[in-house]
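Notebook entry, structure prediction.
Reason for the run: the old model in the group folder had no record of what sequence produced it. Starting over properly, with the input documented here first.
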Amino acid sequence: MTTIIIGAGASGLACAIRLKQNNPDADVVILERLSQAGKKILATGNGRCNLSNSAASHSDEVLAFFSSIGLATRADGEGRIYPYSNQAATVVELLLAECERLGVEIVTDCRVESVSDDLCVTTDRGIYFGDSIVIAAGGRAQSALGSDGSGYSLLKQLGHGITPLYPALVQLTSPSKHPRALSGQRAKCNMAILLDGNKVCEEYGEVLFTDYGLSGIVTMNLSNEVSRNFISEEPKKCIAELDLVPDMTQDELEKHVKKFGSLRGILGSQMNAVIDKQTEGDASKYAQFAKHWRLIINGTRGYDFAQITGGGARLDDFDGFRSKKNGGVYACGEVLDVQFPCGGFNLNFAWYSGIKAADSISMKE
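New structure, fully documented this time:
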């Protein structure tokens, strides 16, 4: 039995290894567009590879998989799980070493052009035939690291529906001069997204001010609503509202300003200076701005800076990770319409979906 896997990223490599673990005699071939397998993995977690999270569904199965190939891990205080070495390179090295040991064939510099219903894969390096085809080609985010959105086209060829795509877990842009004035500053605050004045989402955590607008984990997690808004035919006016001092009431802040003349002792000099210019020292306005500071948002930084792609292949076209339209076709990872917040949850899903796709193929065999 031969399985052709399209994409040598997280889900594709996990799928290949699990297939050979289940059936050492199986023929497994991975077709990778880039000259290097696992390139996107190297960039995850700022080069440390936040490969899972203790709160993620099926994280135990993912960690058991990595334990089976000799990778030791450890978690930080927020449940994010990293390789014990704190190096993404360790993860890639072990995955590729295991592929080599098990006899997985990886064909690099290979662009897949089409997949037919009879499981014929046409590439710029020849034609491949499989008993099963796994589409693990990733999304559109960070195409320089391997995923260029081609997986969606392949699934469309096979009759699968694709939900609207958008950059997800991405920084937000603002025309306001204030983020630029605070570039590099961080604030632990509550942030909400308002569309035409209606609050659609909010989260507490760290926001990073930048030359282009806003970044940080909270910004990334709230960016999906923003992205969906701006891909719509009639985008709504988008505002980010920040409560810079969620631990104090507006009345308490106003009293503080009246007593000390500013919020410098709470917000720091730079943040205080920005708010001071907008309020002209008025204590009531000071407190109101600190609790409801609004910034116009005019977009996101796009796919090149997004961690993942929102949208994707419709889940109701699959039974688990096996296509309902063609029983020999499977899909896993980012190409599917599944998204999670920052913190290792998306990479956990990539590993898990690759592992479960392999288990499904093995059961069929």
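Summary: The two ends are 7 Å apart (CA to CA).
The old model has been moved to the deprecated folder.
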